[in-house]
């Protein structure tokens, strides 16, 4: 097991090697071929279940097409994209989605890391119980958790107002789903509660990769707990942290259930997925809805690209392959 | 040679299997897509299956709880020519959309005549598209003004004998420091309220509901639209809808009305059965029931008649059904007056056929039965357009939260948004 910096160095070398067209050895070539044979079937299935619907959505997005009026279907080039991108509703939804994504991922990263440390350091006897307890929210179906949070905060049926009435700003008449800030607060809180376990699980895997001898060497050198965390632990699990952030960001950007259950988009809490749902499923405007979906897909691609290129996330090293 | 034998054998087995399936029971099975209720439609399916005496059998299939989700499922299935849909319990605002798309089978003239006999006008209007009856009226809903006798008396109002206006109940709630039960949630309930206000003020949300999408003219930016916005503004700005107005649905209104600060409420008749059930369960006091009165929906201007909301369920016949004739026959059986009376008494959903109201059991269970019938005759359906979803959602997006509604801007904003959405220039 090498450290991350060494791994990055190796990757750099490998990349440089390919770029310089150094002839591959027979063994490397046959390993590569075997790799394709092994991964090929999965790759084909992936293409079938992801590439095909994406292409179909792109094709549909070029039409003005309403499901209840198929005869009026009309090819309109990129007009649907123009309608979406010039509409303030779209940009507001993107803004709300980014806000929710940034806050949830930031809070979850800190909380998730703390929970991962707790799980990592817990006594062997406590560990299984602790891990199970931390994972419970993640095991709950999102719609169910959304309903639970909705009913907890709802002004008619909720207990939050009566339990926390002593806090400033909360009274029995606080209507959490009556305005933007409070609605988004509940949506974000529910999202964090639900998915922090996921991020902490990924980080726990990263923690397990940090070599114990490095920690001990630092200890011998007199490093404090904080110094060891910043200088040894975190740099050594950077790849795991980045992969966890990437997965959660992609996930958070596609948020739908919480908004759908709690506000139905009221008080300007519409997010991008909800817009796609409304155009495609409610309005049955397949063309316009497909355009929103394709744009959502492009946003997700952009996020992945930024993470991989800018932050140099290396998925392979996070799995401990290098 | 051997391969051929295997094939023949396999085909024989398959055919035998199919034959076995078919010969077991040759009675055609009709599938009735029902909205969730208290089991009444399942019982009606059983009764009509029995009455058909082997001509057909009706099985039910449950649709989602929300009317909008029911429409979504039905539209997608029907767009895919689903032949399993024989009879559909349809919410009236969605009838034009399905009819215009050719998803509903035609109803023969003689049947249309028979199923509209003694039926309240609101229900006939709601089941009609382009002057043709396209669905069979089943049950019909309308909102009444429910009030606490003690509060009305203290405020000097007698809604039972003298029709009241919105202004009067707003002032009464204000003077008595009480809440009004109205539906301010961003959902269909809000559209129901806005439509009732606009039509009661003598207007229409859409002037030409049968027009193609890009030619639809809205009637909101008018005196009627502004009068409607004024009422919502008065209630929201003065906090008369209670702290939860922005997410108040019919059920929340009922809870508010049953509480200490309840005064007047516009709501469907289910609240009566629900309140009685609350008393029976010991959650509510009998004195509350004794204090509840009912009257016609409030008017917008004094001396003018109100147009109460219209809802309910009509039965559509799936255009792709393999047994259209039988489905029409079954629908006629389902809507028999005695079946409607049974449904009203057991499930609390008012009949569309006036004959059902003469049933002694109906009269006993619903002391306000005659008022419901009267309200149904005056009721105004929501805009009957194939683009109802856009109109309704556009209204909800611009008239919510209720505290943001003003007569100067809201009608205009809604008109602009809905017109542009229908022209395909805006997202919703």
Q: Mean pLDDT of chain A, rounded to whole units?
A: 88
Q: In CATH terms, what is the fold-level topology of the largest domain in chain B? A: D-Maltodextrin-Binding Protein, domain 2
User: Which sequence of strands runs across the widest sheet of chain A?
Assistant: 1-2
By helix and strand content of chain B, what is the structural category?
alpha/beta
Major β-sheet of chain A, in short? 2 strands, antiparallel
Please give the domain count of chain A: 1
Helical stretch tally of chain B: 19
Distance from first to last alpha carbon of chain B: 64 Å
Taken from the alpha-carbon principal axes, the silhouette of chain A is flat
Q: Average the pLDDT over all residues of chain B and give the rounded result.
A: 92
Listing every helix as H and every strand as E from the N terminus to the C terminus, the arrangement of chain B reads: HEHEHEHHHEEEEHHEHHHEHHEEHHHHHH
DSSP strand tally of chain A: 2
CATH architecture of the largest domain in chain B: 3-Layer(aba) Sandwich
Main sheet specs of chain B: 5 strands, mixed
Largest interface, C-beta within 8 A:
A-B, 33 and 31 residues
User: What's the overall geometry of chain B?
Assistant: globular
Oligomeric form: heterodimer
Q: Fraction of residues of chain B in helices? A: 40-55%
Question: Order of strands side by side in the largest beta sheet of chain B?
Answer: 2-1-3-11-6
Architecture overview:
The complex is a heterodimer of chains A (322) and B (428). With 322 residues, chain A is mostly helical. Chain A is 73% helix and 3% strand. Chain A has a two-stranded antiparallel ribbon with strand order 1-2. In chain A, helix 4 (88-121) runs antiparallel to helix 5 (127-139). Chain A starts with a helix and ends with a helix. The relative contact order of chain A is 0.14. The model of chain A is unreliable at 1-19 (pLDDT under 50). Chain B has helices at residues 2-24, 40-52, 67-79, 95-100, 109-115, 121-126, 149-154, 166-176, 188-200, 223-237, 250-258, 270-280, 286-291, 324-334, 337-347, 360-365, 369-378, 388-398, 410-422; strands at 29-34, 57-62, 87-90, 128-129, 132-133, 136-142, 144-148, 179-181, 262-267, 292-295, 310-317. In chain B, helix 2 links the parallel strand 1 (29-34) and strand 2. Chain B folds into two domains: 2-134 and 311-378, 3-Layer(aba) Sandwich (D-Maltodextrin-Binding Protein, domain 2); 142-309 and 383-422, D-Maltodextrin-Binding Protein, domain 2. Chain B contains 19 helices and eleven strands. At the A-B interface, helix 13 of A face helix 3, helix 4 and helix 18 of B. Chain A: This is Sugar ABC transporter permease. Chain A: Keywords: Cell membrane, Membrane, Transmembrane, Transmembrane helix, Transport.
């Amino acid at each position: 097991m090498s450290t991350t910096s060494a791994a990055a160095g190796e990757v750099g070398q490998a990349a440089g090697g390919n770029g310089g067209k150094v002839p591959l050895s027979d063994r490397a070539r046959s390993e590569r071929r075997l790799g394709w044979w092994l991964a090929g079937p999965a790759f084909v299935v992936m293409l079938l279940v992801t590439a095909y619907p994406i292409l179909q959505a792109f094709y549909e997005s070029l039409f003005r097409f309403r499901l209840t009026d198929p005869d009026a279907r009309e090819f309109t080039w990129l007009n649907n994209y123009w309608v979406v991108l010039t509409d303030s509703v779209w940009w507001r939804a993107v803004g709300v989605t980014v806000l929710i994504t940034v806050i949830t991922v930031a809070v979850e990263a800190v909380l998730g890391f703390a929970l991962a440390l707790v799980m990592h350091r817990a006594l062997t006897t406590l560990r299984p119980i602790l891990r199970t307890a931390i994972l419970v929210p993640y095991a709950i179906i999102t719609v169910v958790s959304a309903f639970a949070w909705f009913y907890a905060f709802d002004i008619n049926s909720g207990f939050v107002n009566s339990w926390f009435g002593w806090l400033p700003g909360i009274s029995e008449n606080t209507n959490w789903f009556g305005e933007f800030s409070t609605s988004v607060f509940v949506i974000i809180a529910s999202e964090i509660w639900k998915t922090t376990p996921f991020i902490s699980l990924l980080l726990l895997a990263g923690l397990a990769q940090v070599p114990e001898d490095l920690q001990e060497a630092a200890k011998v050198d007199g490093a404090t707990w904080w110094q060891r965390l910043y200088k040894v632990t975190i740099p050594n699990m950077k790849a795991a942290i980045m992969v966890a952030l990437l997965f959660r960001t992609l996930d958070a950007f596609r948020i739908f259930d919480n908004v759908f259950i709690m506000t139905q988009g009221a008080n300007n809490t519409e997010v991008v997925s909800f817009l796609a749902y409304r155009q495609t499923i409610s309005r049955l405007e397949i063309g316009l809805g497909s355009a929103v979906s394709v744009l959502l897909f492009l946003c997700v691609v952009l996020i992945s690209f930024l993470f991989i290129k800018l932050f140099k996330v290396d998925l392979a090293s996070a799995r401990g392959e290098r | 040679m051997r391969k051929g034998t295997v094939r023949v054998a396999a085909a024989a087995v398959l055919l035998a299997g199919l034959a076995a399936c078919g010969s077991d029971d040759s009675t055609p099975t009709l599938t009735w897509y029902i909205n969730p209720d208290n089991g009444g439609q399942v019982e009606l399916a059983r009764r009509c299956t029995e009455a058909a005496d082997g001509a057909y059998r009706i099985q039910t299939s449950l649709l989602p709880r929300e009317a909008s989700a029911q429409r979504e499922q039905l539209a997608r299935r029907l767009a895919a020519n689903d032949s399993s849909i024989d009879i559909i319990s349809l919410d009236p605002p969605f009838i034009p959309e399905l009819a215009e798309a050719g998803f509903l089978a035609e109803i023969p003239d003689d049947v249309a005549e028979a199923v509209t006999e003694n039926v309240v006008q609101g229900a006939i209007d709601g089941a009609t598209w382009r002057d043709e009856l396209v669905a069979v009226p089943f049950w019909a809903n309308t909102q009444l003004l429910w009030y606490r006798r003690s509060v009305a008396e203290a405020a000097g109002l007698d809604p039972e004998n003298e029709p009241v206006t919105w202004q009067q109940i707003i002032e009464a709630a204000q003077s008595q420091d009480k809440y009004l039960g109205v539906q301010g949630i961003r959902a269909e309930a809000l559209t129901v309220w806005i439509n009732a206000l606009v039509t009661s003020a003598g207007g229409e949300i859409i002037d030409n509901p049968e027009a193609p999408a890009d030619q639809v003219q809205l009637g909101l930016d008018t005196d009627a639209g502004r009068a409607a916005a004024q009422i919502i503004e008065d209630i929201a700005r003065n906090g008369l809808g209670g702290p939860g107005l922005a997410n108040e649905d019919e059920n929340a209104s009922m809870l508010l009305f049953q509480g200490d600060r309840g005064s007047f409420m516009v709501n469907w008749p289910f609240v009566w059965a629900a309140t009685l059930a609350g008393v029976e369960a010991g959650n509510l006091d009998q004195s509350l029931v004794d204090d509840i009165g009912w009257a016609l929906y409030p008017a917008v201007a004094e001396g003018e008649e109100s147009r109460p909301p219209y809802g309910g369920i009509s039965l559509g016949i799936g255009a792709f059904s393999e047994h259209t004739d039988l489905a029409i026959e079954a629908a006629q059986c389902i809507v028999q007056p005695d079946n409607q009376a049974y449904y009203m008494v057991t499930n609390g959903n008012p009949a569309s056929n006036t004959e059902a109201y003469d049933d002694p059991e109906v009269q006993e269970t619903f002391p306000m039965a005659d008022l419901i019938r009267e309200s149904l005759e005056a009721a105004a359906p929501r805009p009957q357009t194939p683009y109802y979803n856009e109109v309704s959602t556009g209204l909800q997006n611009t008239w919510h939260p209720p505290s943001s509604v003003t007569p100067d801007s809201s009608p205009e904003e809604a008109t602009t948004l809905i017109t542009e959405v229908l022209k395909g220039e805006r997202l919703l």
